[in-house]
Amino acid sequence: MAKKNNIGANRLVVGAHYGVKDWLAQRVTAIVMVVYTLILLGTFLTAQNFTYEGWAGLFSRQWFKLFSLVTFFGLYYHVWVGMRDIWMDYVKPVGIRLTLQIATVLALLACAAWTVQILWSV
């Protein structure tokens, strides 16, 4: 029976090996949030008469609703990755960590549902 080589690409990786995917996801979502913030800031600073009607008019456009939704969903995924890593790094008892992760997921899902409700009520 041949011995398996456990180095390099053949290495057996177990556990929380999220690595590059989540690192990249956080960078991409951060870029989306920065672009969204710059657009909002530019709109706010260049508006002549910035009133509720102007704000509601901005959010009444379908493309802006979709961009807002993508940005907020990116924010929620960004938060999930960060909080999951915090729970995994600093909370050692498995039961408490799992409870905190479930509470985080439920809170983020509630925020996502509320976001959809707010955006499509305008």
From TrEMBL:
Pfam families in UniProt: Sdh_cyt
> Major location, coarse class?
membrane
Which pathway or pathways does this protein act in? Carbohydrate metabolism; tricarboxylic acid cycle
Q: What's the name of the protein?
A: Succinate dehydrogenase hydrophobic membrane anchor subunit
Q: How does it sit in the membrane?
A: Multi-pass membrane protein
Q: Where in the cell is it found?
A: Cell inner membrane
Q: Which organism is it from?
A: Massilia jejuensis
Q: What does this protein do?
A: Membrane-anchoring subunit of succinate dehydrogenase (SDH).
Co-factor requirement: heme
Keywords assigned by UniProt?
Answer: Cell inner membrane, Cell membrane, Electron transport, Heme, Iron, Membrane, Metal-binding, Transmembrane, Transmembrane helix, Transport, Tricarboxylic acid cycle
Residue ranges of the TM segments: 28-51, 63-80, 100-120
